[in-house]
Amino acid sequence: MRVTVRLFARLRELVGAGDLVLEVDADATVADVWATLVAAHPAAEAYARSMSCAVNLEYARMTTAVSAGDEVAFLPPVSGGEARRGA
Amino acid sequence: MSPATAVTSAPLAVETVLRAVEGPGAGAVTTFVGLVRDHNQGRRVLWLDYEAYAPLAEKALGLIVDEAQARWAGARMAIHHRTGRLEIGEASVVIAVATPHRADAFAACRYAIERIKQIVPIWKHEHFEGGEVWIEGATADATDTAARETALRIACA
């Protein structure tokens, strides 16, 4: 089945696309989608431990099951709001 | 009535955010305005680009408003966040909170900015003199209760 993957910020730049369609097995989880992404774009591996994920605009876990047509987003650590602490 | 939450490339206006929280039950209102600063970690910042996963960012802002309104009785909160290229001195985020009593208005406002940095999928791309860098903070997880307790502790300190 096919799912849509959304990537943002530096992860988007590493992969070279913010929006792609991946083919995964019918019983796939978010972890399988991630593994498929990393196999095609090894640079994404840099975010394996720091990214979070969302499925169809809900925060999800790597164990969350996905369905055909789902939108799976992988999110680098966020930095909204005002300037962070620092010099 | 202005919307309580917004993720927009248009310049932010404090007055617009204030209008979203006005009501006869309010005894105090606090506002917080986050600005683009000209320096960061020894670098001279030229401008910032904010990238958002806009529909999830709007939902996350709505969740923060719901959390705050459940925690502080009678509170009304609104949050508008800017996206795209922002120049030095421009507002990146505006929060307004109206409550019956002043202490809650300060606490809820602090809570909101701490939560924004935890769970709202927005990323800051810093363009500085000599280069550019993506600023990365917290791994976003709206279900992480420890993060939420940290924000509450900071708000109520």
Describe this structure in words.
The complex is a heterodimer of chains A (87) and B (157). With 87 residues, chain A is α+β, with helices and mostly antiparallel strands. Chain A has one domain (2-64): Ubiquitin-like (UB roll) (Roll), CATH 3.10.20. Chain A has helices spanning 9-15, 30-40, and strands spanning 2-7, 19-23, 52-55, 58-60, 71-75. A 5-stranded mixed sheet of chain A has the order 2-1-5-3-4. Helices cover 34% and strands 36% of the residues of chain B. Chain B is globular. The model of chain B has no long low-confidence stretch (mean pLDDT 95). Chain B has helices at residues 14-19, 54-71, 102-119, 145-155; strands at residues 5-8, 28-35, 39-40, 43-52, 76-82, 84-87, 91-99, 122-128, 131-135. In chain B, strands 3, 4, 6, 8 and 9 form a 5-stranded antiparallel sheet that branches. Chain B has 157 residues and is α+β, with helices and mostly antiparallel strands. In chain B, β8 (122-128) and β9 (131-135) form a beta hairpin. The A-B interface holds A 6, 8-10, 13, 50-52, 54, 57, 59, 73, 75-84, 86-87 and B 34-37, 39-42, 50-53, 55-57, 59, 81, 92-93, 113, 116-125, 134-143.
